[in-house]
Amino acid sequence: MGTLEKTLLTICLFFTVFGLMTLQKISLVVCLRMVLHPTVLIEQGYAVLSVFLVSPYLFSVALVIWNTPFLRKAKKGALPPLRCVALGIFSAAVEGACIVAFTTRVMAVLPVFVSLPATQGVLGISSLMAALKESKKRPRDSSQPIDAAGQVPHIAPSVVGGAKIMASVLCVMIYPAVACFLYILDLADSSTSLCLAFVPTLLGLIWTKDLQSYILRPSEQVSLFHERFRLFYWIVKIGALIFFILVEMYTRSETSDSRGTLNVLLDGFSIFNDTYVMWPLVIHFLTSILVYGGVYTSLALREPLFGITLPSLLSMVLSIMICVIQAPGLFSLDETTHFGPFPLYLICASFLAWAWAWPYILNSSSLLTKPQHLLTPYKVLFTDYGWNPVFADQTLLIGFDCSKEPSDSNAGKRVKTRIYICTTMYREADYEMERLLLSLSQLSADPLLQDVYFESNVFMDNGCRGDTLTEFALQFVSLLDTKIGVSMDKCRCWSTPYGIQISCKMAGGLWLFLHLKDPQKVKAKKRWSQSMYINYVMKYRKTLWKGDSDNKTNSNVKVDSPPSATLKPASSTDGPQQFHLVTTAETGEIISNDLNYTLRRITNVGYPTYGAFSPSPTKSAEQTSSDDASSPNSESSSQSSCPDEDTKGHVNKGFHDDDLYLEQGDVTAVNLSVLTLNTALRTNCVPALPPGMESRFYQRLTPVTLPSQLYSNLGQVRHHVSHDVIKEAALEETVATSATEIDDRPEGADSDLVDDDHTFILATDADMAFHGEAVKELLELCGSDLRVGAACGRTHPVGKRSGPIVWHQVFEYAKDFWMIKNAQNIIGSVSCCPGCFSLYRASAIRDVMDKYSTPTRSPWTVYVKDTGEDRWMATLMMINGWRMRYSPFADNSTYCPDTFEEYYKQRRRWILSDMANAVLAVQNILRLIRNNECFSLIYVVYLVNMFLNTVITPGTAVVMITAGLELVFDIPYMYTTLPLASVVYLFAILCTCTKQSTQVRLINILTLFMGGLFSSVALYGCYKITSMMVEEAKAGDFHFQQHYMILLLALSLVYASLMHPKESYQIVYGFAYLFIFPAMHVLLPLYSIANIIDQSWGTRDGNKAKIPKLSCLPNLKRFVKLRKRTKMVVKNEDSEAELQSAVSARLTDMRDCGERAIQEHKFWADLAATLIGVGVNTGLEKAALAQGLRTLRNRTLATFLGLNALWLAMLSYFYLGADSPLARLNIYGVMSGALYGFTLAIQLVGLTAGRLEQVLGKVARRICRGGGDNHVPVWVSRRESREE
């Protein structure tokens, strides 16, 4: 199927580019023939030529500005050599002169079947130079002798090489020959003949790859100065074109004053008032852009034959045929008779046809060479940007060169990709947690990502208090069993320096670690949870891989080993002798008081459990019964190894559950595997075990030797334990051991090749739903560009209940992702990767993790760091040179507020963090420009424009409402502006002195009022403007007016929806967005600033946890029942209490669980002591913070209101200055265009380019790599070293 799809794609590409090239050439001829029309004045003709020639060069300038960081600091002394600059200026001037001369002296005065093939002359010189270079590189024959001087004699080129050189020379010489032929027969004047003879050859010399590479890239390492000089050369070319157009016009006009020539040329632009002149120019320009994009698309998909070579070759023939046949209808002249005798021109055309076809054959080796990579960037495939309007496909053919495409130095290396899914959790509802767990479960078994290592870490704020789980932690634990099928008997529970850690392994092999934060031990809030998982992944979990750069296991790092244990006699001598169990560690910490205390687990992983006891091999044969020789796993052994009476006459009467004593007698050396007091020392007694448990009882692990001084004091060791207790203890110990001995070290950690560039943290919120395809999309996006520090996906909001506020958010999310994210993706960097679903590269996190975890030192930074943590992370990454990207194919969904009150509280936090981080970005704009190559001039202007729009949006929205009321409903402007502005200012004041519940009611009332006004103005205004346009069109007096900008704003959203076909239905939710627009842009900013003091999260504060009945948890219930029988758990009938008891029963100190657990405990203890602990790394005190926030609130609100008052007054001044309704309507349109026009234009261009790039990448990975090119790698953009 992949091969068929690729074949169809190739066919579509060929016919698309072929048709576009044909239309481009036809429109070229039409534009030039229009100049010859008798009704067109000479100055008008040159005005058309100037627009025709200059517009593609202006487009190229825009591309250079778009792709070059002009504001970034470059290395000192990296200027290109002076000779290169001089040569670049000279070649630019010569190019301008040649283009003007060839266009006016050849293309406009010779028939199409002569002029179009003549453009192919620029390829002849490149063919000749390629043939000469190939002959010089031909290898020497090994049989050829070497002279006495050690020199290789000159080698004559082979027959094939000589033929290529001769054919190339003939191609070059044909054009002078045809020029002489035309001049001799008086078919062309001397200037036309000279231009035809030498201009193509001269342009071919200027455009050769070697010369252009020498000018643009004089050294192998291209500096920023080299890229910036590219813009300088394009400006010189534009200046040369305009200059030589004026010179050409001056020589052909009767004006003797050169300064008057420019005025005459400007007067000629009046011709563009006629639409018949504009359409050919517009069609030619648009088809040229599409050809430009189509050729690159073909080369990016590695199809040079069908994407550029064959379309260029065949479009020339078809274009000539159409122009000759349809000339009378296209441009009112006959190509066969208008210019002179047709047979003579036909002879010239036949010679030019030979010269036109041969370069394709001679350059076939370069024209048919496929790039080594899919999706190779344009600047790697071509020497320069843009195209030439006359030599469009020829310049692309000459500029195409994949011979210098760098090879992938990492080819053949299979680096293991690691993704650590990290989730922050607070008070999510059960249905929200369920979405996350189901997503993790599906991801664990997704075949698309079977080669990727996954691990999930969930950090819950206020998850526990001491050893007690809070209600939401219990809710999550219960969902593990009811929804995922992971019961507590498959989990491991550890007490840690930050709280409690519960870990388990899902069915697909994904490890899930639930970290319950204790607010008495570590700091709360989302940013500190993120700091925890960043440090946990970067400094501990990641280092479990042997090949990780941070793994220090081979660096002689001392690791504290667990303490060994001994038995000491108790001080009491009454009754059977008892012993204390103590450690031999330097601390002398007592692990257990005495051996009488049974079934009390004090586990140290590495020491034995109860079932690991076995008789010592030193035991005498006399003391061993015949039954002892049977298999230890056999039933007979377990039943007969404990006789009713021993050799000393002691009767085994049985003991109570808690009874265990040691009698004096002969001692037997005992091997201990795990030191627990679920165990009993035994010599010749093996109790009956439950089926399947025998092997566990005889598993031998690390022995612990009793101290030698005890042997002389001990007699025979006997123990008596109830048979039922032993069976229950065995069941308990099996469950406990399986939980504590789980190895969570990743598979392949010792052998796989890993690095930080292929290690990621997938940050999610606790209510997210996503699939493996979304993760794969983000992974491919980051894998194809190592400059990307983070990538985000397309988030879809869903509500528990549907309604206007949910519809509003659906459209708002769609609009922002469609236009803002796509535009930022292309022109620079996405300004924020939302923390709800974003993939962060470990090497990028390493650069910012320390700065990210700094405390808040001022009131303003509270909203930079604590409430806008994802924006803060993105800003830090961009300052360090990383770029953020967005993938619209990485779909995910999250719950959004479904009530107005919750929505206002959420947006209060978002608006303040957006404002604070926008101010931070503006403050650090110079650092961002200096350090980050994606901060181009256009992107910087775009960011500043967006920031200013955010500040003055309230005043703008008020003017849009009140001016619209006057223009649509004839309500005087002053009658509505002052009252509405007063209401807004009164609302801002009330927000500073009333309760939030009162403020929310005021917002609801004002939203209904202002939303109704704005919706009426917008809808009826669009209808009225459309009616005016239709009337003008019917009257034949249609021309563009400024107020049409209002319709363009609406149509841009429709266009954005059409560019996303699967989501285009969401445009209907725009009506809800329209209604809530005033609340979003006028009321909520004021409400947010007035409530700066409020530090609450705002959402989910009223949620209640839901814990299912314990009947749904049979394993837990059985486990709790077991604990009750051993009198270790107090009886509870409540499900929450039973679940809490089950978790507490399994809770073990992390330090008692092995060497690696001790390492992890040390990591968390150090992190708590230095970063996340309650009393460390603190910022402002609460009192100082509250006072500072109050001062910040007053200053910010006063400044915000003052700026918007000034802006409102200025807009009113300009609006009221107009004396007619139409003039005011135009001013209204100009205001809208000035505020949003530039941003809108950038967003539309970025949207279009972004969607094309995304679809191209999708096609390349899904079709081309699936159609037999699986071995072809995708281009990977490398991160360049930062220039200082």
Automatic annotation (TrEMBL):
Give the chief site where it resides: membrane
Region described as Disordered: 551-576, 613-653
* A Pfam cross-reference name: Chitin_synth_2
Asked whether the UniProt record includes Protein transport among its keywords, one would answer no
Q: Which domain of life is it from?
A: Eukaryota
Composition-biased stretches (Low complexity): 626-642
Residue ranges annotated as transmembrane are 7-26, 46-66, 78-102, 108-132, 165-185, 191-208, 229-247, 276-301, 313-331, 343-362, 935-961, 973-990, 1002-1023, 1044-1061, 1067-1090, 1197-1216, 1228-1252
- List where in the cell it is found: Membrane
Q: Name one GO biological process term.
A: chitin biosynthetic process
Membrane-related topology note: Multi-pass membrane protein
Instruction: Tell me its EC number(s), please.
Output: 2.4.1.16
InterPro entries in the cross-refs: Chitin_synth (IPR004835), Nucleotide-diphossugar_trans (IPR029044)
UniProt name for this protein? chitin synthase
